[in-house]
Amino acid sequence: GCPAGAVPRRPRSAPQGPGSGRCPSRCLSRSSPWPACPWCSTTSRPAPRYGRPGPWSQGRSAIPFLSDPFLRPSPGARHEGDPADGFLPAQRGPQPLSGISAAGVQGSHQANRTQALNYGCIVANADTQEVQHYVEKPSTFVSEIINCGIYLFTPAIFQHIGEVFQRNQQELALCPYLGEESSNGWQRAEVIRLEQDVFTALAGSGKLYVYKTDGFWSQIKSAGSAIYASRLYLNQYSKSHPERLAQNKPGGPVIRGNVYIHPTASIDSTAVLGPNVSIGEGVTVGAGVRVRESIVLHGASLHDHTCVLNTIVGWDSTIGRWARVEGTPSDPNPNDPYAKIDSETLFRDGRLTPSITILGCSVTIPAEVVILNSIVLPHKELSRSYKNQIIL
């Protein structure tokens, strides 16, 4: 089905299942490279739903869809991955929650000893995979197994969250001054941190397990990491769904490496694309254009002989003829198989840290200029070259 993180609530009387015409994921109308949905026969991403339940003292009524379908899936249910199927493959090895009584499972990955300090570190039993110790961003080395931020819970997790809430309330009653500390407007007693409060309490209790994946994984905390994540996805597509990637064809553009081109995009036959390029819906690429390590979002227009390297081109942006838009790649150490992307600050020594170039939506780049390592905010019309700047 659709790669939905959670299925929105629907009336119980509504028909469901393939062919019913009612998609429980409420797919968006805009097409995308996701597989066809069996409910509505579209290739669309589902519309996400968000909610802010507020303090846990408001109880179960704070989450309107808690009873259906939020708590409906059972731990023994078959887990389906998304089209990349790189993290929780449904047909590779045992299911994460099969045969155990647990409140949840943490997805984990291996990092090197230095970078592991930037993540939540997990110490697990090598035989049972039970989490015995968990520390969020430790100051000294604890483990090379890091928390991926992907979890699979049973309904029992709400009981443990409630216990954490009650403990915080008791501590507040004993030490009232603790309530003065706030986070995002909530008193400390009302704030429940999943990693620091819940996971640390569950570690060693036999209720929390780890699922280690050897597939690709990357954090996206900076703009530069988006290009790297796109590369990982395209590489996975080349293995699991190669038909979705562009191929060299007579009369078509030159394709180098993994390239995705939306069917509605117009690409000149003299253009050279790749490796690691994604071309969105309705994009126009002129003659002699070179695009490498970039993401071009829908509606953008690259005029003749432009060069786009290590760049995210925003929606409906235009790059003039013979212009060059280039950024600095933010890749992990290629010689270390467990290296991750370092989350660098936006500024270093008072200067903009060199990273990929980002063009916001509806940005216009004139002909014959160079944009290097810059961030251009939406709806800007540039008139000259820029380097290492944020253009407001």
UniProtKB/TrEMBL annotation:
Boundaries of every Mannose-1-phosphate guanyltransferase C-terminal domain copy: 255-391
Sequence ranges assigned to domain Nucleotidyl transferase in this UniProt record: 114-179
InterPro entries per record: GMPPB_C, Hexapep_transf_CS, Mannose-1P_guanyltransferase, NTP_transferase_dom, Nucleotide-diphossugar_trans
Record-linked Gene3D superfamilies: Hexapeptide repeat proteins, Spore Coat Polysaccharide Biosynthesis Protein SpsA, Chain A
Protein origin, superkingdom: Eukaryota
Compositional bias ranges of the Low complexity kind: 21-33
Gene Ontology terms for molecular function: transferase activity
Ranges where the record places region Disordered: 1-88
Any Pfam family hit: NTP_transferase
Family under the similarity heading: Belongs to the transferase hexapeptide repeat family.
Name by which UniProt lists this protein: GDP-mannose pyrophosphorylase A
Organism listed in the record: Cyanistes caeruleus
Gene designation: GMPPA
